[in-house]
Design a protein that fits this description.
By secondary structure, the protein is mostly helical. It has 6 helices and no strands. The chain is rod-shaped, with a radius of gyration of 45 Å.
């Protein structure tokens, strides 16, 4: 009776040794394979989403580049116009200077009383700047600070420009 016992024992040991060398298929392996199969469509969907996002970013970049080019072009044309305007103004100032030096020099009293054309141009520019700043919504204090003028002067400019500010209310 010992011999069948040893035979069974040897067969059991042989089965255990063979089972150690064979690849194991467990529930965990089958679950992982199932999860991988389920993740494949998710990966494709994720890849498609990322690709769509990249395309949107590229399109946004192209729009931004086009806007920058347009802004650059506008700025260059504005600079060109300002240079032309500067040349015209410099020519006018040179002409005024020549015409002023060709005549007799007025007495010092007359110089302070009569504004020259250059003074008028400077005042017009100052008024234009004041109204531009007012149009931007700045308060009178800030306008005065930016133009390095008194607050009363800025208030006077605006009151004179008002429809009833030219003496209409003093009646």
């Amino acid at each position: 009776m010992e011999q069948p016992f040893y035979l069974l024992l040897a067969a059991g040991v042989l089965i255990v040794i063979v089972s150690l060398f064979l690849p194991r298929r467990t529930r965990r392996d089958s679950r992982q394979k199932l999860l991988e199969l389920q993740k494949q469509p998710e990966r494709k969907e994720l890849e498609m989403t990322l690709q769509h996002f990249v395309e949107q970013v590229k399109a946004d970049n192209q729009r931004a580049i086009e806007n920058m080019r347009q802004t650059k072009s506008e700025l260059f044309s504005e600079v060109r116009e300002l240079r032309e305007r500067l040349q015209v103004l410099e020519a006018e100032i040179a002409e005024l200077t020549r015409s002023g030096s060709a005549g007799a020099a007025p007495a010092p009293e007359e110089q302070t009383d009569e504004p020259t054309a250059a003074d008028a141009l400077l005042l017009r520019e100052r008024y234009r700047q004041a109204f531009d700043l007012k149009a931007k919504g700045l308060p009178i204090e800030e306008i005065a600070k930016q133009l390095r003028a008194g607050q009363g002067e800025i208030e006077l400019i605006f009151s004179l420009a008002a429809p009833n500010g030219r003496g209409g209310s003093h009646g």
